Amino acid sequence: xxxxxxxxxxxxxxxxxxxxSAFGQYLTTTGSAAVDENAANNATEYVTIGSKMPxxxxxxxxxxxxxxxxxxxxxxxxxxxxxxxxxxxxxKQNGAALTAAAAPDAATHVTDYQVAVSxxxxxxxxxxxxxxxxxxxxxxxxxxxxxxxxxxEDISVVVLAEPTATWTxxxxxxxxxxxxxxxxxxxxxxxxxxxxxxxxxxxxYQDLIGSAPVVTGATTASLGTSDFTPGGTETITAYTLAAGxxxxxxxxxxxxxxxxxxxxxxxxxxxxxxxxxDPGGFTAxxxxxxNMPTPSTxxxxxxxxxxx
Length: 308
Description:
Blueprint: H1 22-28, E1 44-48, E2 52-56, E3 73-84, E4 114-118, E5 123-135, H2 137-141, E6 153-160, E7 164-167, E8 172-175, E9 184-193, E10 197-207, E11 214-223, E12 232-242, E13 248-258, H3 260-264, E14 266-267, E15 270-274, E16 285-292
């Protein structure tokens, strides 16, 4: 296996020719964008369904050393496979087929050490890659043969559903006879996904006399949650409203939700950018809150005794 580790942050000469596209840069950018599979919290790759993700293996530096390549051997070639809940075929970023190796390995191996996989099926998968040396045609004529590593690299991939979020409340009345005015109300939402959710909502307010609604633009709230089982469900406070400040009707519309995994995943239609912030298929969740005053009984009027 030597140095063949998936997801190396930056590899000197061997990855110097990685694509300059955003897709390629996603693997080679310093920081947390690209990591080795053995890095902390990365033993399993989590992705959101509908995404296309990049994977790269570091070519063996010895088998690709300038002392033997290209005089005796061609650059090493690779055999990629995806197994599990589905078996998508790895491709280039643009969806084109990978480049076949030279004979006699054209049917089984490719020259690509960087591939893309489109994830369309939920569940557990495994990506496996074998590296093989490949003699030049002249070397083959002399009897040299290519040798495939018997201990390939693999990485576990779990494809998750898009995160969801919806208000757990039904339309409600604050203040009035329902509850005391002047309190702050925490409105709950139920979320499913991975963790570290962000929900986006808009708000409109209409006063009691029916004036034109005042609309507040989209607001994105980060909902800090403790890690929980991927695909789990949690109820968290997504919005707070102070009753008794402005009486009238608030309409709060949740328009999108993301979690940590959907924000790292790449859109299948554009593998050069993170998955869209409004995952496809999200149904807006609308909540109306009626903030009503509690009556305060006035003084009783009577005929004045002193003016007669």
